[in-house]
Design goal:
The chain has 145 residues and is mainly alpha-helical. It has six helices and four strands. α1 crosses α6 and α2 crosses α6. Bound molecules: 4-nitrophenyl phosphate. The site of 4-nitrophenyl phosphate (4NP) has 11 residues, from loops.
Length: 145
């Protein structure tokens, strides 16, 4: 799960998907395309909304996406079109490019809709983001179960 800072959207996406697939042998991680917040815990507003749904993301630590992640992971979900473009620029071949997907395309195929960045907005934004990611993760699990 990849966003810009790895403190708002992708930690939530990681927490939600990991929670839904606890019974499966699947690794879910998140990262940011930028390195601004490396080592930090998720934004308190993300922690709070996850808590509301009994998901604990407070032990996550922000990290920057690395090219090695293309080897480690089978699917790489971008939260928005900027993340998608950035990831695409890091991919070194078609096999790596094929791993990159827009997470909201899971809900609306080929839409290339972005999960809005809630960082500068109010708590409402986090609620909206949570609901979008929850719906997308429900679609994802139907494919990996
Ligand atoms: P995220 O949100 O990409 O969902 O983690 C952001 C977090 C921090 C910044 C931007 C977006 N920032 O500019 O510091």
């Amino acid at each position: 799960m990849v966003c810009l800072g790895n403190i708002c959207r992708s930690p939530l996406a990681e927490g939600i998907l990991a929670h839904k697939i606890q019974h499966l042998d699947v690794t879910v991680e998140s990262a940011g395309t930028a390195g601004y917040h490396i080592g930090k815990m998720p934004d308190e507003r993300s922690i709070e909304i996850a808590n509301k749904y009994e998901i604990d993301i407070s032990n996550q630590k922000a990290r920057q996406f690395s090219r090695a992640d293309f080897d480690e992971f089978d699917i790489i979900y971008a939260m928005d079109t900027n993340n998608f473009a950035h990831l695409t620029s890091l991919a070194k071949n078609q096999n790596e490019r094929d791993k990159i997907r827009m997470i909201l395309n899971e809900i609306k195929p080929e839409s290339f809709d972005s999960v809005p960045d809630p960082y500068y907005g109010g708590d409402n934004g986090f609620h909206l983001v949570y609901n979008m990611l929850d719906e997308a993760c429900n679609k994802i699990i139907t494919q990996i179960e």
